[in-house]
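Sequence only, no structure available. Ideas?
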Amino acid sequence: MPISPVASGAVKMKESDESKIPQNFYETREFMFTSESVSEGHPDKVSDQISDAILDAYLKEDPYARVAVETLVTTNRVVVAGEVRGSDQVTKSIPDIIRATVKKIGYEQDGFHWNNLEIENYVHGQSVDIAQGVDGQGGQSEGAGDQGIMFGYACTETDVLMPASIHYSHRILKNIADAVRAGDLPKIGPDSKSQITMNYKGVNPINTKSVVVSIQHPEEMTQKEVRDLIRPYVEKTLPEGWMCEDAEFYVNPTGKFVIGGPDGDTGLTGRKIIVDTYGGAAPHGGGAFSGKDPTKVDRSAAYAARYLAKNVVAAELAAACTVQLAYAIGVAKPLSLYVNTHGTGKVNEYEIADRLFAAMDLSPWGIREHLKLHKPIYERTAAYGHFGRQPTEDGGFSWEKTDLVDKLK
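Reply:
I predicted one. Tokens follow.
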């Protein structure tokens, strides 16, 4: 049975409360906002991709495998640890999965080379105490894999209904990585970061205040050479006329970036949760995604919250929407659902929460069945953001669909 929006935490706003916010406040406010992204070659993202590649391997063998794997990377060494319930053959093949993932990212450097890595594998069986709480009796009685709160967000700033600063930060690095793979930027290394500051008026960005790109390069290249090489990709990524002033375009501000990747900085799974989500433009519950199978609501419920928020905005019920879900370990039903339209809603938030409960089963099992999350679709999410991506025919990024719009309208 659906949970009552009142019992779930949705609060019906009184008309007197709504009247306290000036009608033109969200249309006239001016501010700046900054978000950053990191590339697939960033040490933390290398760890995320390894963890999710291992997850995909287990799910390919058994769609209902249980996986929670963490990865550490440093100079020519990878350490994996975690709990699984799945194919022993996959467990034995973990070193091969790691090498293939690192090779795909592009690391063939003296300090981090896919073929020369020392690998330590500490993956073991899942705790029976955790398993019994999650398994329940199967189906809709299956409990959440952990307690926690999860947030989803959407807004009209971009065509993918994501905040502009994180969206374009991702796209800059993705376009550069694609150019490297195509052979157009052969001297650029895998490790890079971007940061964009946007000027806003009302609920919409109007231009770019500043852009920062730090990117790995050979010793012989000067800062200016790298800057001139990267600039066209930044200009191509941003909307026409949005490129910042030349004085606000920073490339390798320290002067050079030769030693990078895990040789320059240790990486860990789950350290880029703001990069993974909304760039700080919306709350985050604190749980990381990568390396976790979809029984872990840290992942699946965060995807569901994004799905609900995006459909609210796509249905034109609001220009921006935050959705929060809360769960307890071993309990199937969500403990609460909270909706905030940030003063942009055309429908009362109480009514939106009511519609969301009617539109989707938000139990862990219901989420996975609705979004088809039992598939090996996760490695691709581990770089350039889990949200704002295009759904794929094999079920990837299903939480980006807007197929609830008619129900919500």
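The radius of gyration is 22 Å.
Hope that gets you unstuck.
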